[in-house]
Structure formats: structure tokens, C-alpha cells
User: What shape does this take?
Amino acid sequence: MSRELVNEMCAAQPGAEWSDPWGGGHDCWKVGGKIFALIGVEGTHVAVKTSGTEIAELLIQTGVAERAPYLHRSWVALPLDSAPDELAHRVRHSYRLIRAALPKKLQAELPPLSMVERPAE
Assistant: This one.
């Protein structure tokens, strides 16, 4: 998996916006002004949010991910050469977590989630 393909996954999320807030070549993906995925300058990993520190620790302990530097312990860094399905799942999950934490008014202003992307109720 390449940086370009992960960026395509991020760009496909409804209302996703790209920025490079620190300059120097970061790919920072946001929804509603909040980061849901981040690729550093080196471009070897993508940092994504998990549902909690326990899940993050499990992913780290099983070798799926590493601790994401500079971010809360609920964030992990997945190698860009991880299985494409795993990367896609983690990007979508991070996006949904961040989107769901936005104020309801801001959520309502975003493009709707497709039926495929909606979490199970």
C-alpha cells in the first residue's frame, strides 16, 4: 500500500479535507476541523484513532500497529504496507469516531454517510 492509496482512502470519506498544518510534507486528513488520519513526512505510517486505549494496546501488542508519536494513547500508527483491508477498515473507523464526536450541528452540515459506511445500529 502506498501513501497515495491511503490518501485516496481518506479523501473518499464524506467531508474529508486535506491539509499540511505543520508544513514539510504531512498529509493531515480532517473532518469538521478534527484530525482522523495523519501521514508524517517520512510517509511510512498512517496514524489513526481507535475506540480506546485498550484497542490501541491490543493492536500494538499483536504487531498490527505501533504507538503513534505525539498523539493520545488511543491513536496508533499503521505501516503503509499493512494489509489493504486493515488500512481501509482503520481509516474508516477513525473517520467515524471523529465524525461522531463532532457537535450535532456540525455533523448535520457534513455530507451524509452512505449506507455502506454507516455503523451498525
In short: The longest strand covers residues 34-39. Residues 115-121 have pLDDT under 50 and may be disordered. Residues 75 and 105 are 26 Å apart (CA to CA).
